[in-house]
Amino acid sequence: MKEETSYELLNKIDSPDDLRQLPVEALPRVCAELRDKIIDELSRNPGHFGSSLGVVELTVAIHYIFNTPYDRIVWDVGHQAYGHKILTGRRDIFYTNRKLNGLCPFPTPTESEYDTFTCGHASNSISAALGMAVAAARKGEENRRVVAVIGDGSMSGGLAFEGLNNVSSTPNDLLIILNDNNMAIDRSVGGMKQYLLNLHTSEGYNRLRNALSKKLYRWGILNDERRKSLIRFNNSLKSMLMQQQNIFEGMNIRYFGPVDGHDVTALTRVLKEIKDMKGPKLLHVHTRKGKGFKPAEEAATVWHAPGIFDKETGERIVADTTGMPPLFQDVFGNTLLELARQNDKIVGVTPAMPSGCSMNILMKAMPERAFDVGIAEGHAVTFSGGMAKEGLLPFCNVYSSFMQRAYDNIIHDVAILKLNVVFCLDRAGLVGEDGPTHHGAFDLAYLRPIPNLIIASPYDEHELRRLMYTAQLPDRGPFAIRYPRGRGVLTDWHCPLEEVEIGKGRKMKSGTDLAVVTIGPIGNDAAAAIRRAEKETGCSIAHYDLRFLKPIDEEMLHEIGRNFRHVITVEDGVLKGGMGSALLEFMADHGYTPAVKRLGIPDRFIQHGTVKELRALCGFDEDSIYHAIIHTLNL
């Protein structure tokens, strides 16, 4: 790729060491160039836009003040980390971001020593950073600083509060930076508040404070318990003067802020003055998502990941989808509203993904019956269980990968009591450019062992509507429906709502030479492969759509076991413990011995790329299924 010539300072920064050679007066210009670089690159190669623009100044200030990579910076939700990538040796290859074999979509230590931890899912930064801080102390690395950067809604996750609780009770010098881009929280104003900020971040104040603390310890007047009492008194005094209280000071974590997250000079001053302070501390920084690009500032949700756009006009380049099948998520959203109008017990629940899963359709029409609980998947499930216990019928929509975080809640708070909760697992299977932290690879395998749980996956949009209708009928108990990211296959997607017999699959096509068994929309690819193979070989191939993984269609599996010597299973999920494993278990339990070839996601974490590329890489795209059929027929 031809390198831009307009980035006079940025093009000289190959690592944070180069950044730290610049005078502080040059940092605003670095920020301007970094912001322009992100805008330019993402206008052509889509990615997470608004979040990274919002932390440009904070990113520059952190790398300017802290000795990275020796000092550890733990990012929460890698949406924010594009500027970090560009400053840490990946500037010239940033155009490969999210592409197959290119830069990873989120920070990962496998890519760079500057990426200290995996951060695809939210709310883990405080816990991970505390672990690093404790490890540094135990190893005698007194000069190593550890910083957790949390924001973009991550503080609503339960893990963040678990981490905070441990931070308050474990000896550490951790710095937590709260990147607050929620404009409902007012900015701090007024002379007394600014005076207190300056006082509590000044080197003189803190030298005096630390020196006095050491003397009091030495004289036996102060111990750890009395120190915590003094901190609580100090926090109470500050709260009285500022006429506000916050949870962090209540947990004995020193609080600084709020500060303007877009004033890079002020940020560097504050970070410099608090970085060597002893004990846990939190810097509250106000930022704005999409900062520096007006359309993104005005519509942060749309510009979270806007796709390709014109960087000069701000016009998003949206493909013409006229005549194309709808997105599965939109079929879900419209069908949920249709069902909710018929059944007043239905409510919707989503953990911070109303537009991503199309729950916003119900929210707009019936706001009192839809709940966005924030980034809190475990709570979303238990909250749904509580409503179900009292007679409501929640449709709890969680991305497949994110539902992993609520596994215990599914078992203990829904399945044991056989509560009527419908789990709609969006983004099931390989999701594409977001990579291994977001692939919905494991749900079939991790849900299958749970008693009382029905597990289904629709072949197409009609089947999704029918399964949703079936799931809300009386006394169904826990019911999981998994479907992929992207479009289906039917343009005429709106069909009558009809009940599906629980545990009953479908024979899509009869055959005598080979049986292909599928579950979910990947069955359409298998059907195309079967047509090709039959046309070229003249063989007769049967196709079975299981539709339900649990309860599994035993009558259908008996038929397959009795009539076929060769079986191919295809699933958009992990092979270990998935649908193919269920079929093998059934065959073994009933004395059938067909040769079974299983196609699906292998036993490794799959990188990022387009869904088409990744299915080919894993060996279960249409071509791979076709070649597996031909190979099996030739045995």
TrEMBL record:
Keywords: Isoprene biosynthesis, Magnesium, Metal-binding, Thiamine biosynthesis, Thiamine pyrophosphate, Transferase. The keyword Magnesium applies. Its EC number is 2.2.1.7. Pfam families: DXP_synthase_N, Transket_pyr, Transketolase_C. Thiamine diphosphate binds at H79, G120, H121, A122, G153, S154, N181, F293, E377. Its cofactor is thiamine diphosphate; Mg(2+). Mg(2+) binds at D152, N181. The keyword Manganese does not apply. Residues 326-491 form the Transketolase-like pyrimidine-binding domain. Binds 1 thiamine pyrophosphate per subunit. Binds 1 Mg(2+) ion per subunit. Gene3D superfamilies: 3.40.50.920, 3.40.50.970. SUPFAM superfamilies: Thiamin diphosphate-binding fold (THDP-binding) (SSF52518), TK C-terminal domain-like (SSF52922). It catalyses: D-glyceraldehyde 3-phosphate + pyruvate + H(+) = 1-deoxy-D-xylulose 5-phosphate + CO2. Homodimer. Belongs to the transketolase family. DXPS subfamily. NCBIfam families: dxs, PRK05444.2-2. This is 1-deoxy-D-xylulose-5-phosphate synthase. The lineage of its organism: Bacteria, Pseudomonadati, Bacteroidota, Bacteroidia, Bacteroidales. The gene is dxs.
